[in-house]
Amino acid sequence: MQVIGSIIWVLFSVMIIIGGVVGCFTPLEVVASLAFLLPIFLCVGGVADILYYFRVKEFAGAKALLFSGIFNLLLAIIFFSMGVESTSATIVYFVAFLAMFRGVLAFVYAFDIKQLHTGAFWVVLLLGVLNIAVSMIFIAFPAIGGITIGIMISLFIVLFGIASLLGWWSARTLFGR
């Protein structure tokens, strides 16, 4: 089961990175499809976080993973109930909030990783700060965020995929190869 979980984690991370890169070249399609797919992504990610929490619950930082999973499931329920029209109207602010939330989680997680001496501390910390910076841009300039949302979301997705791969690398180091 450990090997299967590791394979799924890496495949999910690589798919996220590829999707983000493709989205950089098709930003209008990203915005249109995101309003529909966002609740699905949140639901799948939330379930994955919660399932993985039960594997690592005795380690530092595991509660942040559980909180992230529950939070994603709650947001998925909200967006499923709102419908596509309402979701697309609030997407700029939602993405800003999600980027800030993920940035803070990455920031906190970086200090947990630092204790493992895996070398990923600075990268995860930088990704957390970048997520927070992107969220501030979205909040301060929603018109700019609305115009460039497809590209910005795609870049956010790439950063999240990279952070997920780094999380896999750290977990692999923690549990042994």
UniProtKB/TrEMBL annotation:
Keywords: Membrane, Transmembrane, Transmembrane helix. Signal peptide: none annotated. One of its GO terms (cellular component) is plasma membrane. Pfam families: DUF308 (PF03729). InterPro entries: Acid_resist_chaperone_HdeD, DUF308_memb. The chain crosses the membrane at residues 7-28, 34-52, 64-84, 90-111, 120-141, 147-169. This is Acid-resistance membrane protein. The lineage of its organism: Bacteria, Pseudomonadati, Campylobacterota, Epsilonproteobacteria, Campylobacterales.
